[in-house]
Amino acid sequence: MLIRLIYASRSTGLLTPLEVKDIVRASQRNNAALGVTGALMLSNGIFLQCLEGDHLVVNGLYHRIVLDPRHREPAVLSLGEIDARLFGGWAMGLVSTTEAHRAIFLKYSAQAEFDPYQMRASALSQLFAEMVEHARTVPA
Ligand SMILES: Cc1cc2nc3c(=O)[nH]c(=O)nc-3n(C[C@H](O)[C@H](O)[C@H](O)COP(=O)(O)O)c2cc1C
Prior knowledge:
Layout: E1 2-11, H1 17-34, E2 37-43, E3 46-54, H2 55-65, E4 71-81, E5 93-95, H3 99-107, H4 121-131
Parallel strand pairs: 2-5
Antiparallel strand pairs: 1-3, 1-4, 2-3
The structure holds flavin mononucleotide.
Residues 9, 23, 26-27, 30-31, 40, 47, 49, 61, 65, 68, 70-71, 92 line the site of flavin mononucleotide.
Protein backbone atom coordinates (compact mmCIF):
# COMPACT_ATOMS: atom_id res chain seq x y z
CA MET A 1 0.00 0.00 0.00
CA LEU A 2 1.36 3.38 -1.08
CA ILE A 3 1.43 6.12 1.56
CA ARG A 4 2.80 9.61 2.06
CA LEU A 5 4.22 10.65 5.42
CA ILE A 6 5.11 14.26 6.14
CA TYR A 7 6.95 15.16 9.33
CA ALA A 8 8.76 18.14 10.78
CA SER A 9 11.73 18.24 13.13
CA ARG A 10 14.13 20.85 14.47
CA SER A 11 17.79 20.78 13.53
CA THR A 12 19.90 20.37 16.68
CA GLY A 13 22.67 22.66 15.54
CA LEU A 14 23.34 25.03 12.73
CA LEU A 15 23.94 22.67 9.83
CA THR A 16 26.19 23.84 7.02
CA PRO A 17 24.94 23.44 3.44
CA LEU A 18 27.52 20.66 3.08
CA GLU A 19 26.06 18.77 6.04
CA VAL A 20 22.56 19.08 4.59
CA LYS A 21 23.85 17.78 1.28
CA ASP A 22 25.37 14.79 3.09
CA ILE A 23 21.96 13.96 4.53
CA VAL A 24 20.34 14.19 1.12
CA ARG A 25 23.10 12.16 -0.52
CA ALA A 26 22.66 9.30 2.00
CA SER A 27 18.89 9.57 1.58
CA GLN A 28 19.09 9.35 -2.20
CA ARG A 29 21.23 6.25 -1.96
CA ASN A 30 19.16 4.45 0.68
CA ASN A 31 15.72 5.52 -0.47
CA ALA A 32 16.32 4.46 -4.06
CA ALA A 33 17.06 0.94 -2.79
CA LEU A 34 13.88 1.01 -0.67
CA GLY A 35 11.61 2.35 -3.41
CA VAL A 36 11.01 5.47 -1.29
CA THR A 37 10.70 8.90 -2.88
CA GLY A 38 10.27 12.36 -1.42
CA ALA A 39 11.80 15.72 -0.66
CA LEU A 40 13.48 17.53 2.19
CA MET A 41 13.41 21.21 3.07
CA LEU A 42 15.17 23.10 5.82
CA SER A 43 14.07 26.58 6.71
CA ASN A 44 14.02 28.58 9.92
CA GLY A 45 15.90 25.69 11.63
CA ILE A 46 13.04 23.31 10.85
CA PHE A 47 13.24 20.26 8.62
CA LEU A 48 10.17 19.31 6.65
CA GLN A 49 10.33 15.98 4.88
CA CYS A 50 7.96 14.05 2.69
CA LEU A 51 8.40 10.28 2.38
CA GLU A 52 6.41 8.24 -0.12
CA GLY A 53 6.44 4.50 -0.55
CA ASP A 54 5.17 1.24 0.85
CA HIS A 55 3.57 1.82 4.26
CA LEU A 56 5.75 -0.63 6.17
CA VAL A 57 8.93 0.55 4.46
CA VAL A 58 8.15 4.25 5.07
CA ASN A 59 7.20 3.51 8.66
CA GLY A 60 10.48 1.66 9.26
CA LEU A 61 12.51 4.39 7.58
CA TYR A 62 10.83 7.12 9.60
CA HIS A 63 11.63 5.34 12.85
CA ARG A 64 15.27 5.07 11.78
CA ILE A 65 15.50 8.72 10.70
CA VAL A 66 14.14 10.06 13.99
CA LEU A 67 17.05 8.43 15.84
CA ASP A 68 19.44 10.75 14.00
CA PRO A 69 21.01 13.19 16.50
CA ARG A 70 21.05 15.97 13.89
CA HIS A 71 17.41 16.69 14.63
CA ARG A 72 14.92 16.58 17.52
CA GLU A 73 11.22 17.01 18.27
CA PRO A 74 10.02 15.01 15.29
CA ALA A 75 6.28 15.20 14.70
CA VAL A 76 4.27 13.39 12.05
CA LEU A 77 2.06 16.08 10.54
CA SER A 78 0.37 14.13 7.78
CA LEU A 79 0.09 10.44 7.01
CA GLY A 80 -2.22 8.81 4.53
CA GLU A 81 -2.77 6.47 1.65
CA ILE A 82 -2.18 7.98 -1.77
CA ASP A 83 -2.93 6.88 -5.33
CA ALA A 84 0.22 8.34 -6.84
CA ARG A 85 3.53 9.78 -5.72
CA LEU A 86 4.31 13.47 -6.00
CA PHE A 87 8.05 12.82 -6.21
CA GLY A 88 8.04 9.85 -8.58
CA GLY A 89 11.36 10.91 -10.04
CA TRP A 90 13.12 11.71 -6.76
CA ALA A 91 14.69 9.33 -4.26
CA MET A 92 15.11 12.46 -2.13
CA GLY A 93 14.93 15.92 -3.63
CA LEU A 94 16.36 18.91 -1.83
CA VAL A 95 14.46 22.15 -1.73
CA SER A 96 16.90 24.89 -0.84
CA THR A 97 15.95 28.01 1.05
CA THR A 98 15.96 30.75 -1.52
CA GLU A 99 13.85 33.86 -1.25
CA ALA A 100 11.55 32.54 -3.98
CA HIS A 101 10.96 29.34 -2.02
CA ARG A 102 10.40 31.25 1.20
CA ALA A 103 7.57 33.05 -0.54
CA ILE A 104 6.00 29.70 -1.43
CA PHE A 105 6.46 28.41 2.16
CA LEU A 106 4.71 31.48 3.49
CA LYS A 107 1.87 31.19 1.02
CA TYR A 108 0.74 28.15 3.03
CA SER A 109 1.54 29.53 6.51
CA ALA A 110 -0.41 31.66 8.91
CA GLN A 111 2.82 32.88 10.55
CA ALA A 112 5.41 35.21 9.08
CA GLU A 113 8.10 32.63 9.87
CA PHE A 114 8.12 29.17 8.33
CA ASP A 115 6.52 26.91 10.94
CA PRO A 116 5.20 23.67 9.46
CA TYR A 117 4.24 22.43 12.96
CA GLN A 118 1.35 24.88 12.72
CA MET A 119 0.25 23.90 9.23
CA ARG A 120 -2.70 21.68 8.39
CA ALA A 121 -2.10 18.40 6.58
CA SER A 122 -3.77 19.48 3.35
CA ALA A 123 -1.65 22.64 3.15
CA LEU A 124 1.50 20.57 3.65
CA SER A 125 0.57 18.27 0.75
CA GLN A 126 -0.12 21.28 -1.45
CA LEU A 127 3.18 22.85 -0.45
CA PHE A 128 5.05 19.70 -1.49
CA ALA A 129 3.05 19.47 -4.72
CA GLU A 130 4.21 22.97 -5.56
CA MET A 131 7.79 22.16 -4.57
CA VAL A 132 8.11 19.26 -7.03
CA GLU A 133 9.27 21.72 -9.67
CA HIS A 134 11.80 23.28 -7.29
CA ALA A 135 13.45 20.15 -5.88
CA ARG A 136 16.89 19.17 -7.08
CA THR A 137 19.23 16.22 -6.69
CA VAL A 138 22.55 16.38 -4.90
CA PRO A 139 25.29 14.79 -7.02
CA ALA A 140 26.63 11.56 -5.48
C1 LIG B 1 16.19 15.49 8.62
C2 LIG B 1 16.81 14.19 8.21
C3 LIG B 1 16.23 13.45 7.18
C4 LIG B 1 16.78 12.24 6.78
N1 LIG B 1 16.19 11.52 5.78
C5 LIG B 1 16.69 10.34 5.42
C6 LIG B 1 16.06 9.56 4.40
O1 LIG B 1 15.05 9.95 3.79
N2 LIG B 1 16.63 8.38 4.08
C7 LIG B 1 17.75 7.91 4.68
O2 LIG B 1 18.21 6.83 4.34
N3 LIG B 1 18.37 8.62 5.65
C8 LIG B 1 17.86 9.82 6.02
N4 LIG B 1 18.50 10.56 6.99
C9 LIG B 1 19.81 10.11 7.47
C10 LIG B 1 19.72 8.96 8.44
O3 LIG B 1 19.36 9.40 9.71
C11 LIG B 1 21.08 8.23 8.49
O4 LIG B 1 22.11 9.13 8.82
C12 LIG B 1 21.41 7.61 7.16
O5 LIG B 1 20.33 6.89 6.64
C13 LIG B 1 22.61 6.66 7.32
O6 LIG B 1 22.88 6.15 6.06
P1 LIG B 1 24.10 5.17 5.84
O7 LIG B 1 23.95 4.05 6.84
O8 LIG B 1 23.93 4.71 4.44
O9 LIG B 1 25.32 6.00 6.03
C14 LIG B 1 17.96 11.77 7.42
C15 LIG B 1 18.53 12.51 8.46
C16 LIG B 1 17.97 13.72 8.86
C17 LIG B 1 18.60 14.50 9.97
